[in-house]
Amino acid sequence: MSQDILYDIRDDRFRNLIAGSAKLEELYTGCRWAEGPVWFSDLNCLIWSDIPNERMLRWVPDGGVSVFRSPSSYVNGNTRDRQGRLISCEHGGRRVTRTEPDGKITVLADSYQGKRLNSPNDVVVASDGAIWFTDPSYGIKSDYEGYKSEQEQETRNVYRIDPQSGKVEAAATDFIQPNGLAFSPDEKQLYIADSGSTDHDVPRHIRVFDVVDGKRLANSRYFCSIDNGIPDGFRFDVSGNLWSSAADGVHCFAPDGTLLGKIKVPQTVSNVTFGGQKKNRLFITATQSLYSIYTTTNGAQYP
């Protein structure tokens, strides 16, 4: 694929983030809806979700793909805490879980104010250990990505799990369908996607909030819109550029919200994460496949 076909450059700043000789590599295909990629640098592997097939897969460089967990309780988004443990959002169990080093599953959140969560979707962990996650209704709308059920929460919220008490608090309650989320590299802002346009005629946008005392969100404001498809999952590089999923590929936005350019992907993209030993390899989950491409920047993920 030539550079003209692979990239849609909207701003010259994008040229400093992409490698002209890099190729979009399809690492695996055979999923029904690939999601939730998370990189394990200490194990040199990537784990991601294949939600409708109720499994999680593992890719190892030069080692191929194997099943990491099946059944998976329809896991969607994944991340790691600062101790390196896997944190996952389960549609099937309607809960957020942690996988311990011995493989045991610990439930971190499955209800709020005495009512079941909808279907936790994506999750991030702050440096203080607090876990933030989104809770749209996608996993209970049908039996395709979970179990069709009635929504018990009045709204679809963004939550914070306190690292000391384990208490679950609603941090934002005015989203239609909160989806992907990520902290800015300095953790002073939290960016959250609203993919409510799948159900309603609303903007396809990502909002940004100030994080106050590490515990609450304030000063909600518009950051950017996706001009093709919806914003699903996204991640930041070390310079504060946001790399988001979209229907036509991966969209890269500058810290000021300017669309810098796109990496064109032949399938609808659901999520991205940086990985590889230098965190300069962008892994992309897109409908049936897992892709990757090298960049000239580095991801801001931890650990």
Describe the overall structure.
Helix content is 1%, strand content 49%. It is built from 1 helix and 27 strands. The strands form 7 sheets. It has a 5-stranded antiparallel beta sheet. The protein is globular, with a radius of gyration of 18 Å.
Q: Which short descriptors sum up this protein?
A:
1 helix; globular; mainly beta; four-stranded antiparallel sheet; single chain; 303 residues; five-stranded antiparallel sheet; 27 strands
Give a quick summary of the entry.
The protein is an all-beta fold. It has one helix and 27 strands. It has a five-stranded antiparallel β-sheet with strand order 1-24-23-22-21.
**Shape call:** globular
Got a strand count? 27
- Class from helix and strand fractions: mainly beta
Low-confidence stretches at least 5 residues in length (pLDDT < 50)? none
Helix-strand layout with pairing:
Elements: H1 3-6, E1 7-9, E2 25-29, E3 34-40, E4 45-50, E5 55-60, E6 64-69, E7 75-80, E8 86-90, E9 95-99, E10 105-109, E11 111-112, E12 115-116, E13 123-125, E14 131-134, E15 156-161, E16 168-175, E17 178-183, E18 189-194, E19 205-212, E20 216-225, E21 234-236, E22 242-246, E23 249-253, E24 259-264, E25 269-275, E26 281-286, E27 289-294
Antiparallel strand pairs: 1-24, 2-27, 3-4, 4-5, 5-6, 7-8, 8-9, 9-10, 11-12, 13-14, 14-15, 15-16, 17-18, 18-19, 19-20, 21-22, 22-23, 23-24, 25-26, 26-27
